[in-house]
């Protein structure tokens, strides 16, 4: 398949999360080197704590402090740490039941190799030197030579300056390919030609082409050059800047228009320039303006032709 | 075997606000669910299944709500489903739950939709920097404003109609304690003097960003018999979809919307929606969508919808009140907005809408749409059980 484009696409965003009372106490506790669990109606201590009982659905608020030592209940060796994992050297993923808890916490264990890890081994928390109120305040667990200690003890969950929200970055990192039809369209654009594809069933020309007609469900293959002139079928005047760096270069107000290129079966979207924004109108005839090195027309400008009659474009709004 | 009639016996909403920093997402949905259970006089043990809906994952970066929220919604050991249909999701989620009851798969189902817009970024979620594509973004309003202009051109509607809708919905919101925007000083002049963001859409004619959740308990005939309050009965429900962009798409009055409404009216035995339906909760994210949907849903002939708005027919005390709750223009936790429409329609026929009650409402339509007019979902609820 010739000239199918592809490029890396990284999408990331720092989502915020309000913690609610239980997670707020848990994460603030970690900052203060205190591990809190929550006691269920039947007396079990869940660590990490949850807001609602996984068995009965009752609201849980009775916080209790557990030890910073515990026992490994299951583990897996990670020989090749990846980006943003807690340790940069090979480590063990461990489930640790802290002394005083009835459930296990997932974290990592700093150990020289898998031969040094076993289910039932005793471990303790190694605190991060800088703590912010996050699960990473526990830098990792480390082997510990000592017997299981105390019961848990009730805790108010109250601390000075509690953490009430956290930021949880989400990141997707993948390879994007627009596929055959879009690639052909993009490659034609590089020659300042606008090429769509015609559906053999309904005869409509799709610009940009998607490789199939969404109405008929059949593949499109017949390439059809459209435009370059077209008609503004409808539009709006944008008076506020979108909060997006990609649009920073465009000054407001500007006209965002639906443009039916001559020969196209539907309108595409573009910016209108070369005319005061308040003189743009439905039916205005326009043509693309290309810039050096740009893959797409920078904007569309009036051709000077008489306006198209409404009936000529009313199906293409 | 005929279908099981479906009754709405519990409705719960959170007070919708711009930011609920005091609760986690689990705490937010829990609040709505508990209120619905209290309304229905039921406990977690009475619920057989949970159906949940939310906005697209990247809006708030929450990928598996059905996993994260199972504890908060008492779903452990029960079926839990998640529904995806963009902005219409609250409506589709309720319909999936209703279908489980009408098909006698489950007797009593908790359905819930939510969004914490304060912890999400809808605009960003919709505008990923896709390689090779032209970075021309006009914002959400920029997507809808050209369709509004097309409607104005097609119908010759006077340009004041949009402001009348916003003025009405914001006044209705003052009577709804759960609505987000409460502006007691609202005037028509204020609405009309707001800046044009995406001409012809003014700031005052756009929906807010809200944090909120809405829950309903749906049950069968036996469940309705035990309900402490009058139930709302589902007389018809349907979903339709069509591509976001295709040659011949009518953005002003999408075919999928017309087909969806026709299906609901057929199920409910509605011949003349304008006369037979007493109240409408429709998804109006920008004010002009009220006259547009009035036509699309068959309440007015093509080109005539704005006349109903202009003549006061859609006011709370009008002949066909539209969005007595204040609508999406006053409250918009996107993932929940569709379900709020469905729930508010049910509150009307239960006679439990409080200050925004439409006097004598016996049949009400709940409507949702989303995804660039790609998905439609609607239900018609009545005060009496269905007879067909
Ligand atoms: Zn076709």
From TrEMBL, chain B:
GO MF: acetyl-CoA C-acetyltransferase activity
Transmembrane parts of this sequence: none
Entry keywords, A to Z: Acyltransferase, Transferase
Gene3D superfamilies: 3.40.47.10
Domain Thiolase C-terminal intervals: 243-374
Keyword Transferase: yes
EC numbers: 2.3.1.9
Record keyword Transferase present: yes
PANTHER family named among the record's database cross-references: ACETYL-COA C-ACETYLTRANSFERASE (PTHR42870), NON-SPECIFIC LIPID-TRANSFER PROTEIN-LIKE 2 (PTHR42870:SF1)
Protein's name in the database: Acetyl-CoA acetyltransferase
